[in-house]
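User: Quick sanity check before I run a bigger batch. Here is a single chain. Can you write out its predicted 3D structure?
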Amino acid sequence: MADDSTPVVLRLRGVSGTTYEYHRKEKNTMWMGVAGNYLFARAEGDAYVLLFAGQTDDLAQHMASGATLLTEAVETHQASHVFSHIGQKDLDARVREQRDLVAAYRPPLNVRYPDR
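Assistant: Done. Predicted structure follows.
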């Protein structure tokens, strides 16, 4: 796996066949107040295990208020990275993307919290 200072693009294919690109965020990232989708993941060798797929209309606000879920991802599932796909302003498109990835990967925290 690349060290944390190396930019990483994670490409994930949903059950629809659509491929989504997510960019790994650095620790202590200053999140922008923009709409987007995000992932919590655990590094395993050169790959990542998807733990949670989410979406929000304001990443900065959501990440500041979503510390409980991230803490659970770290403590219970050894989450090591956060990825984001920003710029999608349309709520329906963000929800479709989230559902597409959840259906494909069955992240454990989405299974546990299906309404998040």
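The mean pLDDT is 87.

User: Great, the batch can go ahead then.
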